[in-house]
Amino acid sequence: MNEHDAAAAPAAAPAPIVVPVRHYGRWAAAVVVLVLLALVVRAFASADIDYRITWEFLTQENVVRGALNTLIISVCAQTLGFVLGVLAAVMRLSRNPVTSGVAWLYVWFFRGTPVLVQLLVWYNLSLVFPTISLPGLGTWETNAVMTPFLAALLGLGINEGAYMAEIVRAGISSVDRGQTEAAHALGMTPPLTMRRVVLPQAMRVIIPPTGNEFVNMLKTSSLAYAIQYPELLQSAVKVYSNNLAVVELLFCVSIWYLLLTSVFSVLQHFLERRFARGSQHGSEPTLWRRIQGNLRPGRVR
């Protein structure tokens, strides 16, 4: 290229200047939320509440025992609900109209009636059946058998089973039909196919909502207070019935519930990340990552 051609060649275009998008609406909304939050905190800080009582009874023996009972009944009821849910889901998907109809009726009834009503029915079962008889084993007074723990376990667990049935059914339906056909072609029986092929793959869909159900179970277990089961709320009620520090003890109960649900929410998060490995959907970004994304201009978000 000679000097004339070089002079005639157009100059290189300057590099474009990238101007990051300013999200002023986000910052305005954040300011409004912080102001409202500050007003709420100020209202509770200036209220006639002795927060020293809240912290004092947070580790009180009766309250701690109530929190432990809440954890026990939640784990037992969720376990019972999961077993019943798997059984009902398999029955719903059966080609037998009787088993499918019974499973549908179970889900319809226990999802359609309040869990508190179900707890009260189990607790007052002796009004319908004064005695419980098992052939070859004996007869017992229903009042002696139906303790508050057993009534809470049956009420919460059977109700939870109706919700778990729909969760498990959705998980089983998410597995490709070809997996079942391939297992049958290899000579596997339907029960073995369900246990060895379908359910392991369905767990990726089943686990996340099951974790949500357990967190919800921790809070729903407070309804067992109505049938005299010594869970967290009833333990606090017994305390504030004597010292009249109602709001302070209710705050104490709220802190315990927040601690329990927070611990299991973290465990649920890591469990979901484990089962999400290899899927086409990435894990949801954490709160800190979302904050960083808003503080760093120019990042794609």
In summary, what is this structure?
The protein is 71% helix and 3% strand.
Mind sketching the topology for me?
Elements: H1 3-8, H2 24-45, H3 51-58, H4 61-92, H5 97-112, H6 115-123, E1 131-134, E2 138-141, H7 142-145, H8 148-173, H9 177-185, H10 190-220, H11 232-243, H12 246-275, H13 287-295
Antiparallel strand pairs: 1-2
Helix pairs in contact: 3-12, 4-5, 4-8, 4-10, 4-11, 5-8, 6-8, 8-10, 9-10, 10-12, 11-12
Name a few traits of the molecule.
301 residues; mainly alpha; MetI-like fold; two-stranded antiparallel sheet; 13 helices; 2 strands; 71% helix; flat; disordered C terminus; transmembrane
End-to-end separation: 46 Å
Whole-number total of structural domains: 1
Biggest β-sheet, characterized?
Answer: 2 strands, antiparallel
- How helical, in percent, are the residues? over 70%
CATH architecture: Orthogonal Bundle
Strand content: under 5%
Q: What is the succession of H and E elements? A: HHHHHHEEHHHHHHH
**Relevant CATH superfamily:** MetI-like
From the alpha carbons, calculate the radius of gyration and give it in angstroms.
Answer: 29 Å
Query: Would you report the number of β strands?
Result: 2
Mean pLDDT across every amino acid position: 85
CATH topology: MetI-like fold
Protein name: Amino acid ABC transporter permease
Keywords: Amino-acid transport, Cell membrane, Membrane, Transmembrane, Transmembrane helix, Transport
Family: Belongs to the binding-protein-dependent transport system permease family.
InterPro entries: AA_ABC_transptr_permease_3TM (IPR010065), ArtM/GltK/GlnP/TcyL/YhdX-like (IPR043429), MetI-like (IPR000515), MetI-like_sf (IPR035906)
